[in-house]
Amino acid sequence: MESISGSTSVFGLIGDPIQHSLSPEMHNAAYRELKLNCTYVPFRVKKDDLPEAIKGIRSLNIKGVNVTTPHKEAVLAHLDEISEESSIIGAVNTIVNDQGKLRGHNTDGSGFVKYLKEEIDIDLKGKKILIVGLGGAAKSIALYLCKEDIQRMIIANRTPEKAEQYAKKLQKNTNKPVAGIPLDKNILDAFISKTDLFIYTLPTDLITGGEWPFTYNVFPSEAVLFDLRYYPKETTLMKIAREMGLSSYNGLGMLLYQGLLAFQIFTGSEPPLEVMKSIVMQ
């Protein structure tokens, strides 16, 4: 990247907290590799300041931003257009500023599925999937997995009514069998015992009375576990999976692949995979 000047295209990340994010380093390394006159800046935006921050994108001519917790859903009310997928999901993680018109996209789910296929080499055909949690990333992942030839999907959430509502929306839009269930140990265990992919999307270890709301040893021997967090690098769930001899992965892969797709949306250029991957995986 050249030194920053009036002709530099500014991109960024809005969320709270953002100090842990690898996105600025990942995108800036890609700009340097491709010699693009761009820079990527993290902006900490508190919940109540979101409307003003979105106005700032227009007034400061920021070319685009990624969106992270807690703004992925709330930001929709402040955009001019959103993609069809973002409308179904009800969340946005990528905003493009097209001459003052703000367009919202969602690359979380598409990035996750691309990561499964290209990095882990998982064949999704006939898979039985269980997702724990229903935030913006979980909704996006659920939609894009339902676009694949899966057998069925179960969504477990602390508010089961929300899981049931979103399951119905996915059924309507993808014709896949999807059900919402509560975070009840007996119910979860019954589904876990027949699950191929277990995807944990909550921001913290969900422990009730000192224990997780499911039994560890009911996972099938071929099950693959995902914890979308990437700090610590080996989460509690991943440690449990390793001790049981199961394959498990953190959220770094999804971070990389959603970032690759966002980079392409922002710049129109093919993202340098190995450069961005080296930042995320180091």
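The record above closes out task 2.4. Task 2.5 opens with a second protein, given below.
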Amino acid sequence: MTDISVVIPLYNEEESLPELHAWLTRVLTAGGYSYELIFVDDGSTDGSLQVLRGLAAADTRHVRVASFRRNYGKSPALNTGFGMARGNVVITMDADLQDSPDEIPGLYDMITRQGYDLVSGYKKKRYDPLSKTLPTKLFNATARKVSGIHNLHDFNCGLKAYRAEVVKHIEVYGDMHRYIPYLAKLAGFNRIGEKVVHHQARKYGTTKFGLDRFVNGYLDLLTLWFTGTFGKKPMHLFGLLGSLMFLLGLAAVIAVGAIKLYNMHTGHSYILVTDSPYFYISLVLMLLGSQLFLAGFVGELVARNSPKRNEYQIKETIDIKEK
């Protein structure tokens, strides 16, 4: 089996590809590894595909290429590369030369000798403007809090190493490439480490990601937290919240009616129940509570009918048969 599969998603990186291929070849050959380079072209509109065709023709033993008909995003590109990978260790890196191939031997060692399931790069010293680094720090702090993976400083670093088993048991979709360590943790791979890596200034082209990635990133994090926590048991969230809101509204309605009856009995002035604003607040609480409860019930029906409702990550099976 191949030692290392390097998965490289790319979009409009024709200038950097020859240099990246030469650099990877030099490092991996010097290390004596058997390897494959998997380039996934995410619908590039420049000459990237033509360059990849040339690299594949010149290096048929190591270069493999997949090309999308249009731009789908980094997550689908990674997921495709993971499906193609045949190596014991899978390395992911960006194609813009900001990730250094010289880090690969160290990452490989942490997986094979130190026993990590996943190792994420940490670009401690970055060559990015403050408009990117400050939101990134806030984003990573939130991701650490929500995911419970407190030893990672940079969830979104493109340079990562995985045990082959990890990439075969996770599905990267949407924009979830930012949270692959969290996906791995939810799949039961808890040995997640970090390695400080060198960050290089961009040599060619411009970044393909805008500031909207921070907004989308938080929404994706909430989605991942919810599906990871309540995906198979939605009633535990919606049913609980709905029941609490309904009971609170019911108690408030009873209180409004009881206050009126007490005032009538004691001869104090009183107003109609329907003239009290608290009556309508109570009704709203009861309605919202009922809707949340029903949402949980519908979610349970959907989960029950899902073909993957009883799919779980099995680490190993031991079956000792009687002689």
